[in-house]
Amino acid sequence: MSRTTVIAFANNKGGSGKTTTCSNVGLAMAKAGKRVLLIDGDMQLNLTLSFFDEDRALGFATEEKNIHTAVKDEKDLSDFVVETQYPNLDIIPSSSLMSSIEYDLFTKWQREFILKKCLSPILARGYYDFILIDAPPTLGGWVMNILTVSDFIIIPVEASPWGLFGLANMFDFISQVKNLNPRLEVMGIAITKADERKSYFKQTYETLKEFEAARLFNTYIRIDSSIEWAQDNSQPVVAYKRYSRSAIEYTKLAKEIIEYAGR
After folding, report:
1. In the chain, what are the domain boundaries?
2. Burial code of 211-241, b = ≥16 C-beta within 10 A, e = fewer?
3. Over the stretch 90-104, which tens digit does the pLDDT of each residue have?
4. N or C: which end of the chain has fewer CB within 10 A?
C-alpha cells in the first residue's frame, strides 16, 4: 500500500486560476490512471461546480454532504466522498456555510489539526494516489489546517501586473505553518492566464524564474476561451475540449506534478 500524496493549491490573491488548475490537474491525473480525491475548501464552491451543476452543488450543502459539516463536527471524511462522472476521480464538496469555518475552528482544541484528524482515516487506507485541496484566497486558520495536512503546496500565479502581489505574505505564512508541519514543501509556482504577446507576461515569467523561494514549473497555462466554455458547462477543460491548448497544457502540468511527487 503506497502513501497518499496530499497537495494544496493555494494563493492568498483571488483570480489566480487556483481552482481551475486544481480541477484540471486532478482530472488529468485521473486520466493518467491515478486515483485522485479532490477537496473543495472554498466557500465559493467553484471546484464543486467544476463537476456538478448548480442545483446539485447546492444540494450537497442541504444534504450536509460537504467539507463544512465534516470539519465542524470533526467527522471521518470517508463518509463525505462523492463520485464524479470520471473514473478514478472523487470529490468532497464545499458549502456556502464555509464562511463560518474560522469561527468553528476557533472554538476547538488543537484547531490547527482538525482537518488532519478528519482526513486521517482516508490517508490510513492509502487508496488514493493523490488528494488535491483547493484552498480559499485567505491566510487564516482554515488554510493553516489545509497546509498542516499537506505534503506539498502549489501556488498558481496569474501572469498580470498584479499577479505577484501578496506573494511575500504567502511565503511568510508557509514558514509559520512549517513549525506545525515540517515536511511541507513548496512544489512550485504555476503561471496561469499567460498572454505571451504582453510585456507583463515576460516580466512575470522572468521575475518568478529568478525567485529563490520556489521553483517555477516548466509548463504555464495560456489564456484560452475554452476554459470559460468548460466552466459554463460544469466541466474541466481537460474533459470539455481535450485537444484545446489549455487542456494540453494542464495535462503536461499534471505530468510534471506526478513526476516531482515520485508517483
Report:
1. 5-260
2. eeebebbebbbbbbebbeebbeebbbbbbbb
3. 999 999 888 899 888
4. N
